[in-house]
Fold this protein.
Amino acid sequence: MKRAWKYYSGVFAHENELDDILSGWYGLRKFGYDVVNYLEPKIIVELGTHKGTSFLSFCNSVRNNTLSTKLYAIDTWQGDSQTGLYVSEVLEKLKKIIKKHYSTQNIKLVKKSFNTAVTQFKNKKIDLLHIDGLHTYNAVKNDYNLWNKLTSENGLIIFHDIHCKNPGFGVHIFWSEIKKENYTLELKHSNGLGILFKNREVYEKLRPLESSWQAYYSTVAQLDYYKNFPKNKKSSLAKEYEEKLKTLEKVTIRRNNELIKENDALVKQLATINSSNIQKIAQKYYSTRKKIIGK
Ligand SMILES: C[S@@+](CC[C@H](N)C(=O)[O-])C[C@H]1O[C@@H](n2cnc3c(N)ncnc32)[C@H](O)[C@@H]1O
C-alpha cells in the first residue's frame, strides 16, 4: 500500500478502442486506476466485466505502475436481464485489447457464472473485489455473501450503482444496509460507487480524501465525456444510445399505464366517498335556488 494517494491525469493505453463511453463506469475509470495504484493489490477479482471499462482501468494501472497484481475478470459474457443479451464479439474485442496493450500483465478472463467460479478462489485472498454483476437486490446480496469471505484483511470491496434507482435496481437498498455495519466511503457521480474497507486503519487514512475525490473525479468524468463523445451521429454508439432510450421509453410507457390505472381507481373511490356529500350540496343548492328565483 502506498503512503500517498495519487491522481492520474494521463490517458488510457486503450483510449477510444472500446466504444464504452455509455458504460456507467466511464466516469469512474480514473478512480479505478488510482485505487489500484494506492492499494498495490496482489489479487484483483471483478464480478461483471462486460466490455471491460472498469477492468481495463485496473489493468492499465497495474501496467503503468509496474505492479505484480494478478487480475481476474469473471463474467458469462452473455449479458443479463439489465444489460440485455449481447454477442460473443464483446469478449473477442476485450481479448484483442488485452493482447495489444496488457499482454505482459497476469490477466485471466474467467468465462463462468459467479457461483461456479467461486470454487476456484477458495484458497486465494482477494485484495480488491469489484462487484458489478446483475444489480437486483437479491443478486448483489448473493454476490457479496459468496465472495466477501474470500477478501483479505486489508481488502476493499467496491460496488457500482449504489445510487441508481431505476426499476429493478436494488444495489442502493443493499448498500444502505451494509453501510451501517462497515467502514465505507462513496463517490456519488456515475450512478455511485461504494467503497467498503475491511480494515479500519486503511479507512481512517482515506476518509479525509472523500470530498476531494468527489470534486476531482466528477470533474474529470465530465471532461472525459466532453472530450471523447463521438461527433458522428451515425456511430455505433449513437445506435446503442438509441436502443437504451427505446428501453427506457418502454419502461416509462408501462409505468405511465400503471399510473393511469391507479388514478382511475382513485377517482372511482373518491366518487363513492363524495357522492353522499354531493347529493347534500345539490339539495341545498336547489332549495336555495327555489327560494330566490322560485323554480
Ligand atoms: C453491469 S455489467 C458490468 C459492467 C462493467 N463492470 C463495466 O465496467 O462496464 C454486468 C455484467 O455482469 C455479467 N453477469 C451478471 N450476472 C452474472 C453472473 N451471475 N455470473 C456471471 N456474469 C454475470 C453480465 O454478463 C454483464 O456483462
Residues 23, 25, 48-51, 53-54, 75-76, 78-80, 83, 113-114, 132-134 surround S-adenosylmethionine (CB under 6 Å). The two ends are 93 Å apart (CA to CA). The chain has two domains: 26-228, 234-295.
